[in-house]
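WARN no homologs supplied; continuing
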Amino acid sequence: MSRSQSNMLALGTKAPHFSLRDVISGNIYTLDEIKGTKGTLIMFICNHCPFVKHVNEEIVRLEGDYRVQGFGFAAIMSNDVESHPADHPDNMEEVARKHQFSFPYLYDETQTVARDYHAACTPDFYLFDDELKLIYRGQLDDSRPGNGIPVNGRDLREAMDAVLSNKKVSNNQKPSVGCNIKWKNKPNL
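OK structure emitted
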C-alpha cells in the first residue's frame, strides 16, 4: 500500500473552477453549483484505495452533519481508469450507491481538476470558506488502515466547527496520507 501525502496547497488560494459529470445522476456540476453558504468541501477520493475505503462511512456522516449547516460537498475521482479499472465511472456509481453518497461523485477524466487543485493522494480534502478561499487542506483525522485509531473526522470537523463559530481555522494542519493519484502523464505541478 503506497503512502503519498497532500501537497498542502497554500491557504487563501481561490478554489479552481470545474465542470464535471456526476456518475450518480449524470448531471454536470460546476463549483458554483456545489458551493455552500458557509463553505465548500472538495474531496479527492477513488474506489480502490484502502485509505479511502477506511474513511468512506465518516465522509458520509460528515456530509450529513454539515450540509444542513450550510456546507457544500463534492467528491472527485481523477485516477487513470485504464491503469486502474476499479475506478471506472461504472464502479464509481456502484461505490456511491453502496455508501449512499448524497453528494455528487464527479469524474475528472482529463485530470485537469486534480492538477488545478494540486491533489496528490486519495483521500485529499480541501475546505473553502464562503468566498471560496482555502481555509483547510489535509487529513480527515489521524486514523489510517491498521493503526487502531478510530475514524472520527476530528481535524476536518474542527475546521468546519470553527467556521460555524465564526472563529479562525487553525493553521496547524496535517497533510492527508493515502494512495497517490494515478496520473495518465506526470502533471506539471
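The chain is about 25% helix and 20% strand.
OK
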